[in-house]
Amino acid sequence: MKNKFFTIIAHDLKNPLHNSLSIADLLYESIDSLSLQELKDYLKLLNISLKNASELLSNLLVWSSSQMKGLSVEFEPIYLKKIIDKVLQGLELNINEKKITVIKENLENTIVYCDSNSLYFILRNLLSNAIKFSHMNGEIIIESIILPNDEIQISIRDNGIGISDENKEKLFTFLTKSTLGTFGEKGSGLGLALVKEFVEKNKGRILFESELGKGTTFHVILPAFKPLKR
């Protein structure tokens, strides 16, 4: 469990910390030539990146605690668009770097019933992967649909490099071979195994479809919030 935990720390914190260091280096080297507006813009990105790293660390500590004590989830109604916007804000630097277009469809007024920390963890990992495997000027579509039996399906679709047959078979296990992103981004290959664990703890399920060279879509199906009728 300790080995698993430390590997996850490296996997989930590497990107935001690397982004923060890159911005800090740029500011140090170029501060004399930057305009006040440029300085504000870079400081804003640095602030977002560090906040994201802090939140990820907090989520990882929650997860590590759950492994020792059993995962505790607190079900509550969550506005999907609000938490997706929060995740995208933390990934803004990565999105801008590749000039990716993010399209959000049917998210307004969609309310899922699950644990907020779990949902943040799930969406951040899936969106981070979509960005990682997207090409320059790529496109990511995030949409939700209401399914029968009071369920909501959240789909995240990219038009990136897709998943190899070798990795498809082991995608949600800790045996997945890590694949480099389109900009050479590295990962441990553990993210999706954790995503599946969190989805199932929240009474949900996860599916995917992918074609090599054409992109990947992940579908996360979670309970919908049902207001009490009076």
What's the gist of this structure?
The chain has helices spanning 2-30, 36-69, 80-90, 92-98, 116-132, 165-168, 191-201; strands at residues 76-79, 101-105, 111-114, 139-147, 151-158, 205-211, 215-223.
Commentary on this structure:
With 230 residues, the protein is an alpha+beta fold. It has one domain: 2-Layer Sandwich (Heat Shock Protein 90). The longest helix is centred in the first third of the chain and has 34 residues. The termini are far apart.
The biggest beta sheet reads: 5 strands, mixed
Radius of gyration: 18 Å
- Broad shape: globular
Q: Might you state the CATH topology name?
A: Heat Shock Protein 90
**What is the averaged pLDDT score?**
85
CATH structural class: Alpha Beta
Number of strands: 7
Primary descriptors:
five-stranded mixed beta sheet; 230 residues; 49% helix; 7 strands; globular; 7 helices; alpha+beta
SSE order and pairing:
Blueprint: H1 2-30, H2 36-69, E1 76-79, H3 80-90, H4 92-98, E2 101-105, E3 111-114, H5 116-132, E4 139-147, E5 151-158, H6 165-168, H7 191-201, E6 205-211, E7 215-223
Parallel strand pairs: 2-4
Antiparallel strand pairs: 1-3, 4-5, 5-7, 6-7
Helix pairs in contact: 1-2, 3-5, 5-7
